[in-house]
Specification:
Its cofactor is pyridoxal 5'-phosphate. The chain is α/β, with parallel strands linked by helices. It folds into two domains: 4-17 and 272-381, Lyase, Ornithine Decarboxylase, Chain A, domain 1 (Beta Barrel); 22-271, TIM Barrel (Alpha-Beta Barrel), CATH 3.20.20. 30% of the residues lie in helices and 23% in strands. The chain has eleven helices and 17 strands. It has helices at residues 4-10, 22-37, 53-62, 71-79, 96-105, 115-128, 166-174, 196-214, 242-252, 267-270, 303-307, and strands at 17-20, 42-46, 65-68, 87-89, 109-112, 132-139, 161-162, 179-185, 221-223, 260-265, 274-285, 290-294, 313-315, 324-330, 339-347, 354-357, 378-381. The strands form two sheets. Strands 1, 11, 12, 13, 14, 15, 16 and 17 form an eight-stranded mixed β-sheet that branches. An eight-stranded parallel barrel has the order 2-3-4-5-6-8-9-10, surrounded by four helices. The protein is elongated. The two termini are 16 Å apart.
C-alpha cells in the first residue's frame, strides 16, 4: 500500500495520523455502486463507520444515501449535501430533540426499534402537523457468526422489535395517524464474512414481509442492513466481493413489484481505505517479552482494546526480509489494555521507525478520544 515516496513523506510529518488512500476508497465505492445497480438496489452509507468529511464527500458524490444513528449524523449528512430523501435514522435510543430535528428535515425514514418509540414519534409528529415515515426494525434472531460484541440480530440483543411483539406493533401502527408505515428493517451484526448468513436473513425477511402484508400493510421497503466484513489479515488493495453479496439477496429475497431493497453498508466501503501511522517511541527488550511503545494508543484506535480486534501491524521503515523479532506492540496510555497486538512478528525495530496499523478506515478515527488529554488525531490524504 505504501510507496517509497509515501514513507519518505510520512517521515517528515508529526505522528500519529490516519492516512487515507482516497484512490482505493473511490475504487471500492465504484465497485459497490456498479454491483448494486445491476439489481436497482439502494445503498445507504452507515455513517457511524467513518464521518471524516473528505470520506463523506466521495460517498455523497457516488450517489449513496446516509444511514444515521444519531441526530449529529443526520445533521452532518444533510450539511454535506446528502439527499434528505435518502437519509434514514436508526438507533435504539433516539431523543425527543433528535426526532424533532429529523422531522423538521423531512428525512426519508425513521427505522423504529420499539413500540414506545412509535408512540413517541407519532406524538411529536402530531405536534408539528407532520407525518413521519417509519420502517420497523425487527430482531430476526439470526446468528451472524461474528464477535459477540458486534452481533445485533439475536433475541438477547437490545436492538429492534422482537417477533412476539409484532401484533402489538401492528395495532400501534394502525391507530397512529401521524405515522406512515413504509417497510421493515433488519441488521444482524457487523464484520460478517460468511455470506451464507445472509441467505438465512433473506428467509426471515420474506417471512416478516408476508406477515405484514397479510395484515393489510403495504411493504414498500425491505431494508436488510449491512454488516459485510473485510479481510483484516490481507489488506493490500482488497475490495469486498460486492457482486457475490448483492447476488445472494437478488436470488433469495422475494421482491414484489414496486418494492425497493435497501442496504446499509459501512465497514465494507471504508475499512481498507485508511491506516493509522505511528512512530516508535521506545523499544523495551526483556527476557520474556519485547515491547514496542508507539506514540499512538487506544485513544487513536480503540478497537483492539474494546473487543480484541485484529489489525495487521507493519514496520514500514524496514524491508520485510529483515530479521524477525516478536514484539508486543503497545501505546502510551496509562491502561493495561492499551495494546495493539501480542507476539507480533516484525523486522527488528528501533526508535523512530514508522509503524502502520492497517484496515483502520472503519471505527478508527470516529472512536478516537481525548483520554489522558491526548491531542485530536488528524488525517493525511493520498490526493494532497
Amino acid at each position: 500500500m505504501f510507496s517509497d515516496k509515501d514513507i519518505s513523506h510520512f517521515a517528515n510529518l508529526e505522528t500519529p495520523f490516519y492516512y487515507y488512500d482516497l484512490a482505493l476508497l473511490q475504487s471500492t465505492l465504484s465497485n459497490c455502486a456498479d454491483a448494486a445497480k445491476l439489481y436497482n438496489f439502494h445503498v445507504h452509507y452507515a455513517m457511524k463507520a467513518n464521518f471524516n468529511s473528505r470520506v463523506l464527500e466521495k460517498i455523497r458524490a457516488i450517489g449513496f444515501g446516509a444511514d444515521c444513528v444519531s441526530g449529529g449524523e443526520v445533521s452532518k449528512a444533510i450539511e454535506l449535501g446528502f439527499d434528505k430523501a435518502q437519509v434514514v435514522f436508526a438507533g435504539v435510543g433516539k431523543s425527543d430533540k433528535e426526532i424533532n430535528d429529523a422531522l423538521d428535515q423531512d428525512i426519508f425514514c425513521f427505522n423504529v426499534e420499539s413500540i414506545q418509540e412509535l408512540e413517541v414519534i407519532n406524538e411529536l409528529a402530531a405536534a408539528k402537523g407532520k407525518k413521519a415515515r417509519v420502517a420497523i426494525r425487527i430482531n430476526p434472531n439470526v446468528d451472524a457468526h461474528t464477535h459477540h460484541n458486534i452481533t445485533t440480530g439475536l433475541d438477547e440483543n437490545k436492538f429492534g422489535i422482537n417477533s412476539w411483539d409484532l401484533p402489538l406493533c401492528a395495532e400501534t401502527l394502525k391507530k397512529s395517524d401521524q405515522l406512515e408505515f413504509i417497510g421493515i428493517h433488519f441488521h444482524i451484526g457487523s464484520q460478517i464474512t460468511n455470506l451464507d448468513v445472509y441467505k438465512n436473513l433473506c428467509v426471515r425477511v420474506n417471512e416478516f414481509a408476508e406477515w405484514f402484508e397479510e395484515r393489510g400493510f403495504t411493504v414498500k421497503v425491505l431494508n436488510v442492513g449491512g454488516g459485510l466484513g473485510i479481510d483484516y489479515h490481507h489488506p493490500d488493495g482488497q475490495i469486498p466481493d460486492f457482486p457475490a453479496y448483492f447476488k445472494i439477496f437478488n436470488e433469495f429475497l422475494n421482491v414484489r413489484p414496486n418494492q425497493e431493497v435497501h442496504f446499509e453498508l459501512g465497514r465494507a466501503l471504508v475499512g481498507q481505505s485508511a491506516s493509522l501511522v505511528s512512530k516508535v517511541l521506545y523499544v523495551k527488550n526483556g527476557k520474556k517479552k519485547n515491547f514496542i511503545v508507539l506514540d499512538a494508543g487506544m485513544t487513536e484506535l480503540m478497537r483492539p482494546a474494546l473487543y480484541q480486534a485484529y489489525h495487521k501491524i507493519e514496520n514500514i521503515s524496514k524491508p520485510a526480509v529483515a530479521d524477525v523479532v516478536k514484539y508486543d506492540v503497545v501505546g502510551p496510555i496509562c491502561e493495561s489494555t492499551d495494546c495493539f497486538g501480542k507476539e507480533v512478528e516484525l523486522p527488528e525495530t528501533f526508535r523512530n521507525d514508522l509503524i502502520a496499523l492497517r484496515s483502520a478506515g472503519a471505527y478508527g478515527e470516529v472512536m478516537a478520544s481525548h483520554y489522558n488529554l491526548r491531542n485530536e488525531i488528524r488525517g493525511v490524504y493520498s490526493e494532497d
